[in-house]
Design a protein that fits this description.
Blueprint (H helix, E strand, L loop, with lengths): L30 E2 L4 E5 L7 H16 L7 E5 L7 H4 L1 H7 L5 E2 L7 E2 L3 E3 L21 H11 L33 H9 L1
Parallel strand pairs: 1-5, 2-3, 2-6, 3-4
GO molecular function: glycosyltransferase activity
InterPro entries: Glycosyltransferase_61
């Protein structure tokens, strides 16, 4: 049993992978692809932007970038989040030249030369370059890919601040989770 979602959570439907010893025992393919595939699930905390990027999109980037668009995405649990593939269509198109396959609604027996089953989450919203299969990638590569995919201009930083202008700092008060315990001290230090 393999969990196709990068975060280890209870309640995520696992995928059973059976390795056949003899090709003759295999069910005949109805569709044979000549490109590899990446199988992953939209589950867990999908729908939340942080978790979409940390748990799904960054790991999909890591798993598929080495194929330079010659990869197919097999997505499980689309029925739980039907808008997810629509929301991230540009992202998926930036990594694959092929339409994604809804594994829950697909009746075909698909055969691939290679399949990556599940995604790996090494750290929260980060990439560990040494652990990337097929070559080194970094968060800078991920950022560059996002900027290219969504046509986001690079904002250049001013080399010198405008005269007589202090830099701005925004401190967001969070009441419950991830609360800053010494908020008054930080605010005083920032105003100094």
């Amino acid at each position: 049993m393999i969990t196709p979602y990068s975060r280890k959570l209870d309640g995520i439907r696992k995928v059973t992978v059976t390795q056949l010893q003899d090709r003759a025992a295999a069910v005949p393919c109805t569709v044979t692809h000549d490109v590899p595939a990446v199988l992953f699930a939209i589950d867990g905390y999908a729908g939340n932007y942080w978790h979409d990027y940390s748990d799904i999109l960054a790991p999909v980037f890591i798993a598929s970038r080495r194929y330079h668009g010659e990869v197919m995405f097999l997505i499980a649990n689309i029925r739980l989040h039907p808008q997810w593939p629509v929301k991230y269509r540009a992202f998926l198109r930036g990594l694959s030249k092929y339409d994604a396959v809804d594994m829950d609604g697909d009746a075909q027996v698909r055969c691939f030369p290679r399949v990556t089953v599940g995604l790996r989450l090494y750290k929260e919203l980060s990439i560990v370059p040494e652990l990337v299969p097929g070559g080194r990638l970094s968060m800078a590569d991920f950022t560059r890919f996002l900027r290219e995919t969504y046509a986001l201009p690079r904002v250049s930083l001013a080399r010198e601040p405008p005269p007589h202008k202090k830099p701005r700092l925004l401190l967001i008060h969070r009441g419950h989770y991830r609360r800053i315990l010494n908020e008054p001290e930080i605010a005083r230090a920032a105003q100094a």
